[in-house]
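Lecture notes, unit on protein representations.

Consider one protein chain, 112 amino acids long.
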Amino acid sequence: GGHAGCEAATAAARAGARTALVTQNADTVGEMSCNPSIGGIGKGHLVKEVDALGGVMGRGIDWAGIHFRMLNRRKGPAVWGPRAQADRDLYKDWMQNELSDYPNLSVVEASA
């Protein structure tokens, strides 16, 4: 139920596959770490690409974001990195709500 799991599950569901997101605790789906940021120098462009393909993480941070910044602005555009800080509770609630209503996707509380 982390970023990668949510994106992989929703991508498979969007492609038409009946999909199960298996997690040990459904209450932790979408939970962010103690540093609740998305993007940055190494991953900011990746988040934008996933968002362009219909991913959910970008929409979640749009909903729950509290601070948006472009890193490395003093350097050239090749090394700029968009980063957003989120309200952890808002992001988790948004992600759980999004996945609970997602077509072709079921969240299953179990061990695999």
